[in-house]
Amino acid sequence: MLDSASSGAAACEPKTVMKCGVSNQPSRLYPADARMCTNCDPQQRLYYVISDDKSVLSSARFYTVRLSVSDKGVGEIELVGKTSLRDRSRQPLGATTSHSQAVPPDPEGIAFDARRQRLYWSSEGAFEPDRTGEPAVVLDPWVRIAGLDGSYLGEFTMPPGFDMSAAGDTGPRPNRSLEGLTLLPDGRFLFAAMEDPRYEDGPNPDRDHAALVRITKFDVESRSPVAQYAYPLGLTSSPSETNGLSDLVALTDSFFLVVERSGSDKGAVVRIYRADIGTAADVLQSPSLVAHPVLPMLKSLVTDLTNTPGTETAGQYRGHDVGAEASRRALLGRSGER
Predict the structure, then answer these.
(1) Residue ranges of the chain with per-residue pLDDT less than 50
(2) Which of 24, 61, 82, 307 is the most buried (most CB within 10 A)?
(3) CB-side exposure of 183: number of CA atoms within 13 Å?
(4) What gap in Å lies between CA 96 and CA 103, rounded to an integer?
């Protein structure tokens, strides 16, 4: 949900709250050729932050945030502006008033393209169960392209098996679809990560069983999926009952920082991993990740935020990025709509 940027927007409402923290990690956790800031404009110190309130408080939107990072942590955070995301007809993507109308998107990921001066943003789709006399309403996941003014500039072709099911038994699970989004440092490829497995890829992880989720590689020029990899979600830790991939940031064309997050009314567990495609199998054409064995990505733990001082509300951390400073600090963000 958090991505660095180089442009502002109009003033934003006071009800939006955002907090950030910094995780200082040894440089050995990063590949030697990793870019120190994945999408950063150090002079502007601006980031794009997407709202995922499903158009409850306002239309689908993103915020522009200015902040600085130092050895003492994150400095003053300035909300510079708010911009509505628009559809093909140039209208804001707003809330609906009737179950029979198209449901609003559920924005989750955002990535800034410095070279092309535009944004990529994902919606994990929507599923509303059938009501008396009305069919179930579904909205398929998407990855769209937006101008810095929020205008619709196109969208990517989705990979096979990403259509929501009205019966709720195939494809992505409701509210568990596209979550993280990141652009490679050279701007050639965009990666989109699922939060949890599709129905065909097995059950969600629990305290006894891990799970595999799909990370799709898109060619930015053709707007098409070119590869897909299985990421191994870990077991769920108490007090949570399930686990999910919340966000990812590309360090190189193979290495990523990945946030795994789980939560419940009794608490939350948030961990950051370094993940590597390495020799992982391309599963783009594989209809299931459990019908036959697949070789997944490799990962190693970077930090566990669960008991880290200053992260008492770790369950609300939804996005992260890598700061521009030479120390390569991981920038963590959590936000809430009051």
Answers:
(1) 6-39, 97-101, 314-315, 324-328, 336-338
(2) 61
(3) 30
(4) 6
